[in-house]
Amino acid sequence: MSDELNSSSHLNDEMRELINSSMVFFVATAPLSADGKINLSPKGLSDTFSILDDHRVAYLDLTGSGAETAAHLKENGRVTLMWMSHDPEAPNILRIYGNGVIHEVGTIEFELLKGRFGEHVGARGVVVVTISHTNLSCGFGVPVANSFTERPELDEWLDKKGEEGLSRYRDRNNRESLDGLPGYSI
Length: 186
Prior knowledge:
Layout: E1 6-8, H1 13-21, E2 25-29, E3 39-43, E4 49-53, E5 56-62, H2 68-75, E6 78-84, E7 92-104, H3 108-113, E8 123-138, H4 153-173
Antiparallel strand pairs: 1-8, 2-3, 2-6, 4-5, 5-8, 6-7, 7-8
């Protein structure tokens, strides 16, 4: 990585390599309200992210504790995704800035995209981000990590809940954001 920031409006090979080699990425969104809560969510199951083309990426959104990302995307679409390398030979940070759209389960768009991901009980939707800007910068301050291991707990929890239990859970926890914005309709 040079001293210059590497930025563009599309993915290049170095960015693709960082995405494909990372087990964790982060999603940041915010409401338009100045006093609204900014949200930052870690994501990480290896079969839940896909590079659609040089200008679009997508991830499978699984049932979780809230609906902040979905609510913010429905309100304004602004989103930042971030990856960081833990490789001592390539200490990079990649940020993708863009406009995100959530395609909920049951929509035609969800059905068209779901095959790009692994099978997961509890999928709520697919988030598609159209890239407006990328930034690849140094990650000299990011610790070197020797290994990451995927956790089975989310899939186990989703499987244990079953469809009926997940439906009740989403109805209680995913219909709106902490700030009262509309979240998931499922």
